[in-house]
Backbone:
């Protein structure tokens, strides 16, 4: 990352200066998000002649938000550290080829496609699961360590929001981690949060040996019940489009495609 | 207004824009939705909303977005 600290007003001014109606861009940063990443000194601007790149330092890589006005102008930043970006697009077949081409020419390669799914419930859906599986809120340090280890092993470190053990411990303290147990042993975990009146699944995973036994569905059912009893009726999540068992499960719960997807590209 | 509702439902087909009045505050629209709406409004209604001038309150309902468009057209 370039060393000079970047202030939020500089980022906003740069976006205003570079972004036009015809720009190729994945820059969906709103003022509050810009403030947040600048406040923790995780943001840098790399400005070309006609293209602008905003670098956001993440736990395991640097994320690029781009505004490209000249596809012949090269990405002007060299680093040995992992780089990633997400191309956000509407409709499963509408991923912009010009943006992909630009980044492939820069040595990036395609990684994961994720789809946004949403569901609404006015009452708690009925769910009949495996009675050997129980779900409860994570309480102990061991639960937090299990959830952290599971998420760390299952999720791509560059394309999803990787969490530290300290972050998972804090989420556990806040009651935001559910644990699924098969015959009393932890086999799955789900991280959830609320934005406004919409409940989100942040991370969910099931240990390899326990897959196909209903632990994932039991976690999702408990997540829905947890929020529905608080009067929350809207639910949302991002799922890897390649993960067809997970997509089918969410479909059975009534989740539907919300019209937007992301393709991540990485350079490591 | 019909043109706006059509535009909005194309961006978020899962949302009832005639009924929701807290689109931002309730977490129904995210930043990608808001930037997409701005971009489409720019194209369809020929008004320019700069992201730096963005006020989330203007995006809490279809009516609020409509009022913003009318204001920018003047």
Residues:
């Amino acid at each position: 990352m370039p060393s000079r600290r970047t202030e939020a007003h500089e980022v906003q001014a740069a976006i205003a200066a570079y972004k036009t109606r015809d720009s190729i861009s994945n820059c969906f940063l709103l003022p509050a998000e810009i403030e947040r990443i600048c406040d923790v000194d995780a943001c840098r601007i790399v400005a070309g002649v006609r293209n602008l790149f905003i670098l956001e330092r993440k736990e395991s890589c640097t994320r690029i938000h781009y505004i490209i006005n000249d596809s012949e102008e090269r990405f002007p930043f060299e680093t040995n550290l992992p780089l990633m970006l997400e191309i956000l697009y509407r409709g499963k077949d509408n991923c912009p080829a010009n943006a992909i081409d630009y980044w492939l020419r820069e040595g990036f390669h395609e990684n994961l496609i994720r789809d946004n799914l949403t569901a609404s419930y006015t009452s708690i859906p009925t769910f009949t699961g495996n009675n050997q599986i129980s779900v409860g809120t994570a309480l102990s340090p061991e639960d937090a360590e299990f959830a952290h280890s599971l998420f760390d092993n299952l999720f791509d470190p560059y394309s999803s929001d990787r969490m530290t053990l300290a972050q998972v411990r804090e989420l556990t303290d806040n009651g935001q981690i559910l644990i699924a147990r098969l015959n009393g042993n932890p086999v799955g975990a789900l991280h959830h949060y609320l934005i406004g009146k919409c409940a989100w699944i942040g991370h969910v995973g099931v240990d390899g040996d326990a897959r196909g036994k209903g632990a994932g569905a039991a976690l999702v059912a408990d997540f829905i019940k947890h929020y529905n009893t608080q009067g929350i009726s809207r639910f949302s999540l991002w799922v890897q489009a390649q993960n067809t068992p997970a997509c089918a499960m969410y479909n059975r719960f009534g989740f539907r495609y919300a019209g937007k997807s992301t393709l991540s590209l990485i350079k490591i | 207004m019909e043109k706006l509702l059509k535009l909005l439902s194309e961006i978020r087909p899962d949302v009832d824009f005639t009924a929701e009045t807290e689109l931002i505050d309730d977490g129904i629209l995210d930043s990608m939705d808001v930037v997409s709406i701005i971009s489409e409004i720019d194209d369809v209604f020929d008004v320019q909303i700069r992201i730096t001038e963005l006020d989330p309150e203007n995006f809490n309902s279809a009516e609020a977005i409509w009022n913003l468009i009318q204001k920018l057209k003047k």
Residues 45 and 54 of chain A are 5 Å apart (CA to CA).
